[in-house]
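Protein modeling request. Please complete all fields; requests missing the sequence field cannot be processed.
Requester role: graduate student
Desired output: 3D structure, token encoding
Chains: 1
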Amino acid sequence: MTTPAPEFLPGLALSRILFEEAVRPILDAAYPGLRYAAARAGAGSEVLGFDTERSADHDWGPRLDLFLTPDVAARHGADLHRLLADRLPKQIRGRPTHFRHATPGSPAGLMEMTDGPVDHRVSVNDVGGWLNAHLGLGTVTTPPAVRDWLAMPQQKLAEVTGGAVFHDGLGTLTAARRRLAWYPDEVWRYLLACQWQRISQEEAFVGRCAEVGDDLGSAVVAGRLVRDLMRLCLLLGRRYAPYSKWLGSAFKRLPFADELTPALHGAVLATQYAARERHLCDAYEFVAALQNDTGLAEHVDPTRRPYHGRPFQVIHAERVARALARTITHPELGGLPLSGAVDQWTDNTDFLGRQRPVRAAVDALR
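Delivered output (366 residues):
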């Protein structure tokens, strides 16, 4: 008889139970007085709050991130990992704490019951090493420099600042997450200007493609512009944009999403150029009004207009980009091209995951 699957619990709730009912008692008994932090952050749909029962098919389950001081992590990290392997319960709320590799050599893990020690997913780190591994930051206590902010993809920032901290006896994890919670004001203005500049580069192409009979090309450009508008809206809402799988889910959480979504849907689903252009212009005007409401830059008339002497309706988004750029006085930002942070000019996952090339490219643009 097949055992029914346990009731779905969001991964963050499962991680909290793992800590409170299993990991904390083991630490208290074996290492009384140990200073540590316990959290669930980093990669994983549950960290962003988007996990479902489908997520349980890989790298999801009773997971936890423990943080020790660097010296204690170096001395006792391996022993602590083995201690947990021996003493953790075999399951938490019906979910195994043992993970097997999905395929030989694969980092992906699948929950599975075991009779022996559990190959658990309780990581042991120090905060500085963890931040360096995820974001390339070399220090825990110093605020990121402009170069750092431009080299950190929003997906990574969302992972590091998302999830939940269940205990912080160190204080460094909470302080670091607070520093990374959002961009400094002028970096934010610069990224907004760059996002508007991206839109300006392609807003006329929807019409130009259609004019030469390339309706598929027109639709593809419209889809790109909708994506850029969604990312722009998340910037305006002071929320890090996740990668494509969760972009729409994150966008839906914005307070104005319901009002803007019909225009975005209309632009993506339109089968005729005229409707596609009309919906896009509705969206441009809506988002430009949101930008004006922030008061970050001088008011820019958001109404649609022809693209120079051509019959394509646009808002000339570069006007908004220039208005924002004029408010930036930071010496490291003022002379930069409006290319933006690394994930505003590339979305290649393999590249974004390699910090040295990313930072080299950012330095070259600077």
